[in-house]
Structure formats: structure tokens, C-alpha cells
Amino acid sequence: MESQIQQIHQQLVDKKITCTALIQERLDLLKANTNNTVNQLLEDIALNLAKKVDAKINNGDTIGLLEGIPFGIKDVYMVQGTKTTASSHLLKNYKSAYTATAIQKLLDAGAIPLVKENCDSFGHGSSSENTIFGAVKNAINPNLVGGGSSGGSAVNVAKNYTVFSIGGDTGGSIRQPAGYNNIYGLKPTYGRISRYGLMAYASSTDCVGPLAKSIEDIRIVLNTMSGKDVKDQTTYASADINTENLTNINGIKTVGYFKNFIESDAIDAQVKADFLTTLDKIKAKGIAVKALDFFESNTLVSTYYTLAMAETASNLSRLDGTNYGERVESGSLKETYAVTRSQNFSEETKRRIVGGNQVLSQGFSDKIYLKGLALRDQISSNFEKDFNTVDIILSPVTPSTPPKVGDSLKDPHAMYLSDAYTVGFSLGQLPTFTIPQGTATGLQISAAKNNDELVLKFANFLKDTI
């Protein structure tokens, strides 16, 4: 699919549509949707902004490429004056006092926010069922999960309720739901986009990223959000990615893949067969394909969850009903904290906090947490070694197709294992891009740090190849 952003922009400029009519149409679709993607409609904000865009056009003023384009926001981003609930009981009435940097950049470019989108509470989940707003239903088959934790964002894009949405990816939370719903989803290099105003899950791997229906729309939104931010010291300055640069793949000589991912007993037979077919098509284009050794899936998952749970236990310690959230009074201050957190956190969130506190506790931190940090360093070193011999690493997004709604809640361990192919790239802080081709849940393209342009370039190549 070609760029919806450019198509709608031209329609607005040519006065074939009005921005107000466009926004009202998408708002009506969101109101009527049965996929449980909406936490809060931003109707008044959206329509007021749309009127301003129409006034500019009627006055003959030039509008920017993103001006008037409707988008969605995962409900973990601050937008001043709106509720930011993280799909949780604790923050169900919390109002943002400021706006996240990435969202502010989109607003400054004229994009129009329509909706705060349903997700796993605090990003804790891989199915968008761990939410007070009801499970997000898959855009293709509503009996299946929408994926997580950015499930509402992915489904809204897939159903054309939003032109693009902004998700958050910690261990695969953009890439996996993008794969489950047949759209594009990018986790950029860690630090390319500011995390300021994003509710922290695991600070060392949290990334802001876009979901859309075309590579070009991903590129446009990525360029808009990228850049150094004094409010986030992990950010860095990055050059814009130009469309012209995505058509030349001369720099891509060798594609690698992790053979233990493909030889695993956990992978679905059809996903494996489709992935191998894709490798054959790449070879037929004269690009070398190389099998790589990597850590076992269980090691990747356990390393990721050890570190992520430790970080989320720390990050969520501030939520006790004193400064933020729904306070539940009890006999003493200590009991009030305990009851507030016990009643207002979901079972999955409590599971991750307890696990995180355990691995950080005396007697466990040396054996578990420090070992996790050492393994993360080894994983990063392994990537550096691999990218000395290959330009791109290709993998399935998930080992199997989406589960039915309800199944993941019954088996959290199986839910964790569904992240087996995504968490390694998060630990390496690499740019990784899901494309809706190659297997039932898409393909994942990764490159070395700061090579975001390369993953978009290879995606553009695969679009016409497989």
C-alpha cells in the first residue's frame, strides 16, 4: 500500500475532502468499533484542530505533510489534559499534566490525535488482555488476540480507524501486534526517539515507535519524532531518512538468520516453511544468506524478563496512591500502600513486581540480576560480532500464530515464550522492523545500532521480492 499520509494530504490540499469530515468519519468508526481498541476518544480536541486545518486551507495557506492526519496514541503516553490510564485501575482517573515529547512533535507538525488506545496494563502482556477495558480483538479474526502490549494501536491501524498509531516497544510490544494484524511496526534504535512522557516499564529497553500500513508512512512519522531531547539523556541526534535512499540496496550483500530459531521445536511448521521459502527468494536475488548461532530462546526470554521485571518493580514503586492513582485507605500508612497496590494492580502487574523485587533482593541479586546483566552484555557482543559478517538479520516475528482470546491469561508462561523471537533485539537495543509478509505473522528485520535506514531499505526490497 502506498502512503496514506501523502494521499490524504493531497486530498486536503485539492479540497476533495475537508479535514473536519475526515476526522468525524474516523471518530464515528472508533465509536462503533467492537474490537475494544478505545480507552478514551479525544473528540473535542480532534475536531477543534480539524477546523483550524480547514481554515488554513480555505485561506490559501500551505499545510504541512502531517497536518490534519488522524493518529492514535497508546494509553501510556502523556497528553496534557487527557486521561492517561495505562489501562489500569490504579490510574483510571489520572489526568496528564504535560505532553510526551514524541507526541508533542507530532502535534507541532499538525497531526490530529483521535484516541487513547487500549493496551496491556502498564505494558505488562503480549496479548492486550491484561486491561480494565476488555481484551483487544484481532483485526483479522476477532476470536484471536490483538497482540500486545500495543494491541489497540495495531488494530486501529489495521482497521483504518487511524492512519498511524504510536505504540511502545519494550520486548516486542510494537512488532508482535503488528505481525498479528498484518501491518508494519517499527522499534527504532534505542534512544532515537525521546521516552520523556512515556510511562516507564523497563527503562533500558523502552522504545517509542510507529505502526502504519506502509513503509513510507513509517518513515515520515519516524523522522518527525526522532531527535535529541534534553529531557531524556539517552537520546541522540539523528539524520532524517530520505525516500530516495530506500530504493538502493547495493549496500546489502549478506542476510543472516538464527538457525536455532528455525530449528526450535516451538516453531509452527508452516511458519518455518514460509520463512525458509523467503530465504530462497532472497538468495535468488543474488544476496547471500548465512546461518548464525545465537542464544537459546529460553535464555533470551529469561534474561529479558529478569531485567524487565526488576526495572518495572523499581519504576512502579512510585504508584502507591499518595502522589498518583486511586488511594484505598486502611489502618496505617503502610497498610494503605499495601491495600492500594494490591487492589489496583492487575494479577500480571503484581506478578512482575513480585518477580522484580525478588531478583533485586539480598541473596538473589548476585545470582540472578547480575547474571542477567552479564548475559545482556554477551547478547550485545554477539550482535556486534554478527554484524561484522552480515548486513541484516531476518527472523519470524513469532514462533506461532495468535492465540484465542482467553488462552494467554490461563498460561502466562506460554505468553512469555511467545516473545522468544523479539526480546533479543530489545536487549541489543537494535532497530527492528516488522513487515506483513513472509509468514502468517510477518517477518522481522534487524540491523546494527543506528542503522534504522537499512531496515526500512531492506523492507522496501522485500515488498517487491516476496
What does this structure look like?
This protein is of the alpha/beta class and 466 residues long. It folds into two domains: 1-292 and 382-466, Amidase signature (AS) enzymes, CATH 3.90.1300; 300-367, no CATH class. Helix content is 40%, strand content 12%. The protein contains 17 helices and eleven strands. The protein has helices at residues 4-13, 19-32, 43-58, 101-108, 151-158, 175-180, 215-225, 259-262, 269-284, 297-315, 333-344, 347-360, 365-386, 407-410, 412-417, 423-427, 452-463, and strands at residues 38-41, 70-74, 112-117, 164-169, 184-187, 207-212, 254-258, 288-292, 392-396, 432-435, 443-446. The chain has an eleven-stranded mixed β-sheet with strand order 1-3-2-4-6-5-10-11-9-7-8, with helices on both faces. The longest helix is centred in the C-terminal third of the chain and has 22 residues, at 365-386. The two termini are 15 Å apart.
